[in-house]
Amino acid sequence: MVNLGVLVSGSGSNLQAIIDNIEAGRLDAQIKIVISNVPGVYALERARTHAIPSMVISHKEYKKREDFDQKLLEVLKTHEVELVILAGFMRIVTPVLLRAFPMRVMNIHPALLPSFPGTHVWQTEVDYGVKFAGCTVHFVDEGPDTGPIIIQAVVPVYDDDTADTLNARILKQEHKIFSQAIQLYAEGRLKVQGRRVLAEGIPQAPDSFMINPPVTIFER
Ligand code: GAR
Asked: What spatial distance separates the first Cα and last Cα of the chain, rounded to whole Å?
């Protein structure tokens, strides 16, 4: 059982997936505290509905990022958090938090890192014309979206995709892989070796592939 602190800034659909998996007994974790840096977001409502402690710590009340992170750190420690989950948390975290939780801060990013770091990536992906997109759960290090990758999921990009349709397709996979990454952590299976994260005791993905657009005439 791992104690989670979940940081959010918005709708909290990833938070909801984690809550649902915990309640269904699929995820060996408990959420000790949900913290939003933005007041009034729906993620806070989700926490309340499930009787999970939650609070707002507005970054606007702190002059420096480090001071904001110091406050986050105090609250996370008070709630005996072991693993910090950035579930749509739209702030860069500083070494103040990262040094207190080394390789214990996980982020979900809606792209196949190291491609398309940053925010609101879906339109950029559609405009770029990539044929595949996806999502990544990674440990957070001191760079922007650069930390060691734990798990990724791939989805096709279709010709008529918009940012919204692509976002929806990716989000479905986010909801699976975030809980999977947390469960691997809870089971003590994640071993960080430099940039590589190994999931010990987990079978390798099958030797398969996807081609988009699909190959037809050359198939044999
Ligand atoms: C998710 O798509 C997540 O990958 C993204 O914000 C969304 C939050 O949705 N995170 C980032 O872009 C982090 N840089 P949610 O509030 O419904 O979970």
From this structure: 48
